[in-house]
Amino acid sequence: MSTAAPGSPLPAPTAGAITRQLLHHAWPVLVAQVLSMSMMIADTLIAGRYGTADLAAVAVGSGLYISVVMLLVGILQAVAPTVAHLFGAGRLHAIGPALQQGFWLALMLAVPGTLVLGYPEPLLQLARVPPDIAEGAGAYMQATAFGLPAVLLYRTFYAFNNAVGRPRVLMAISFVVTSTHIPLAWSLTHGLFGFAGLPALGGTGCGVSTAIVAWLGLICGLAHLIRSPAYRPYAIFFDWRPPRLREIGALLRLGVPMGFSTFIEITSFTLIALFIARLGAEAVAGHRVVANLAALVYMLPLAMSIATLVLVGQAAGAHDWARARATVRVSLYLTAGFATAIGIGLWLLREPVIALSSTDPAVRAVALGLVAYICIYQLTDSTQTVAAHALRGFKVTLLPMFLHTLCFWGVGLGGGYWATYHAFGRDTAPTVAGFWEASVAATVLATALFGWLLYRVMGRQGGLVAASGR
């Protein structure tokens, strides 16, 4: 959070001051993200201990669930740069109405999202998921559908809270949600509620728990929003307004490219589980183990990127372009250093880490063969993630969406399919490693392209950057 009052002139930026601001904002976001990610890891461990077939079903089902959720949540992330610009400009009276329209947009998006999750058969058939995996994956998705409206409303609150520099409450709520989910998911999966007439649900139990704790998180967020005096200046619940097409349209113009960018980047991994389903449950499960590790590693650059978006957005709202550019530079250096250290540590601890994820030797063998790709991938991916979020802070979202499509669907998924099933004699011996090889190439290209675009944007001084939105 900025140390100056909203809208007031900021002092000349220094690397030390910006570093402190970034870390002050990023560490609670990091803890909140890691706690949320630990729910997915817990699902992997719980389902994996229950059975390999259930782990594969959860891998496919959660992959589709995450793809749908991140598309819709990405659109709602338009609330973050919108509120950050208002905060930086000192227009506190406009923040409450902007958040209200964000809540309305969340409810609107929940309708198609719930239908997609509630009726997953077309997606599973399109992906040619084997029937033994499709049945469990579909049941998992249908269970999570009940929690989707709560997820979207909470993530709107999440974006707002970050934008006004109050991320610590998100950390506290994530702790409550995660500490509830893990024992609940274990109990539902293994049938520990049998005394109440509820049988063991297998992997579907993880989906039921996910839906339940989504509503718990929303209740906690709304209670804090209503009771905390820190939000009174924004008059969030004063003069509640119905949906306004103009304001919602502005959020959609900014958020739809953000949502598709997030969707494209996330599905470049989650769709791998669908494309490799024909390789068998062990390949899908091994990929899920390594994908969880990659997602966990990604939490640090994501936290730094969210902090960068907020601070850049606040500086842009205040028309402090020098501070915005300095924030981007410091964040890039910090994140690259963190990513290098994480990659080295992960490589050194790869065997005990993989051993925690599955008792199946075949699954462990697949996962160990893929760990090296994470160590390479996460360095370039962290850099492009910071650059992409910095561009969102400048309200530049359209061209990044096309760059994400080129890199992560074109090179990552398209190239990965070729490398898995056709390259180097793999038409007779396909391997999931091909997708990971292409993913590394995709992040290298994305880093170069987003670095170029960010350099161009930061060279454009003044209000044109914030006003154009392109």
UniProtKB/TrEMBL annotation:
Keyword line: Antiport, Cell membrane, Ion transport, Membrane, Transmembrane, Transmembrane helix, Transport
UniProt-listed GO biological process terms: monoatomic ion transport
A matching Pfam family: MatE
Ranges that cross the membrane: 29-52, 64-90, 102-119, 169-188, 200-226, 251-276, 296-318, 330-349, 361-380, 401-421, 433-455
Record's bilayer topology term: Multi-pass membrane protein
Predominant place of localization: membrane
GO cellular component, one term: plasma membrane
Localization of this protein: Cell inner membrane
A single MF term (Gene Ontology): xenobiotic transmembrane transporter activity
Keyword Membrane: yes
InterPro entries in the cross-refs: MATE_fam (IPR002528), MATE_MdtK (IPR050222), MdtK-like (IPR048279)
The protein's name in its UniProt record: Multidrug-efflux transporter
Source organism: Thauera propionica
Record lineage: Bacteria, Pseudomonadati, Pseudomonadota, Betaproteobacteria, Rhodocyclales
